[in-house]
Amino acid sequence: MSGATFVALFVAALAIWFIVRVVEVLLLVFIAALCAVYLSAITDLLERRFGVRRWIGLASAVVATVAAVVGIGALLVPPVIDQTQALISGLPQTLTKIQNVLAAWARQYPVLFPTELANPASGLVGGLIDAAAGFLRGSILPYATAGGKLFIESASVVVMALYLARQPQLYRDGVLSLLPPKYRPLGARVLDDAGATLRAWVVAQLLAMMILAALTALGLWTLDVPYWLAFGIFAGLVAVVPFFGTLVSTLLPALFVIESGDWIRVVAVILLGVAVHVAEANLVVPRIMQHRVSLPPVLTIASVLIMGTLIGVAGLVVAVPVLAVTTVFVRHVVQGALYGDAGSLEPAVLRSTERRLGADRREPGVKPVRTKTSA
Which of 220, 240, 239 is nearest to 230 (CA)? Predict the structure, then answer.
């Protein structure tokens, strides 16, 4: 092994060790970047439409966001807390009823009779709920008991997000200045594509969460499902976790309907969850958003599993944007710079939603990402 190879391996190992040691800090920086992308989207809109100065637009975005959160919280938090408390207090009796109904149903079929599902005392349903609650407790409890550390980290995220949203060009130029001059156009393409991708994901995700929460709550209320508002808010919150959030938010309300023994209503609740998610993904959001983030489903599920295992609940939240940024890097650097793929100039994961609605025109924002110097 030559000396240069040894040095390269040593530097690579040192870099990996450093990243592992500061992964929590990197996570905070990434969350701050996502918040900055959201604030910048509103700020840029105010700058374009009304010609206000950037600091005024940023201040307006912060004030509007805080006002919206406080207003929605004042309207929804009290009834959600009441429904959640009622759900928790009645959970043992509800689980017993569900277990009895499932046991009575399973005993009607010889193939299910020897299983635990046919035994009303097996505690199968309660075990599943306890396992899910244990995962949440193990993931969230460290954050809830962090105290001063949680406050410092939260404040750091807010401050970093404000600075990034206030002067995005400063930090973009700073990152590019670390690259050799011949690679700066490539770095600019990566940053531009990653920024546009994150912006599309953040805006679409917020819209999806609100739409899913509203439609799910309305549908569950129509079907007379208990705790309909709590389940609706839950469906909106877990929408940030692809596939798994959809699965849980669809099956959980149906589980609490099983105790009634009305299997038609159980199926109706499941079909409602499927219909709401399909309508949100294929009809509502595409008509509002000009771009969508398109990622392979298998990679998306794998990224959720990997990030959840490595980081916990926070990893579930950032799994998709991390995968999107990684895909952008691979597309431009590996496929484009290393392999010479001419298609690397196209956006890596951004796609126009107009084609999904039957149009064949492309909005200027989805043309190949160019640097400012090459425009």
Answer: 220
